[in-house]
Here is the input.
Amino acid sequence: MSVVTKKEEKVNKVFDSMSDIHDMQEFKNIFIEMYPDDWKRIISTYNKEERKDTKGKGHPMPKPEIYMSNMYKVGLKKRQSEREKNNGFN
Here is the structure.
């Protein structure tokens, strides 16, 4: 199960609300403002995984800030790819 439900839809809404889509910090701030429960779930899931990792081997859940950065990077790449596709570059 995904940590953030309807992630792609939410990421698109955040990008639509941004004044500069190339500002990762703006993305993070707006996401947290628009979806505080999802941000809490990201942190909670990470903390749960940390508690399970008693042997210190790590787990697949990245730290919350990195999770947000990954959402931003994937969302920006998809957005740019769609824009190129719609402009006939592909």
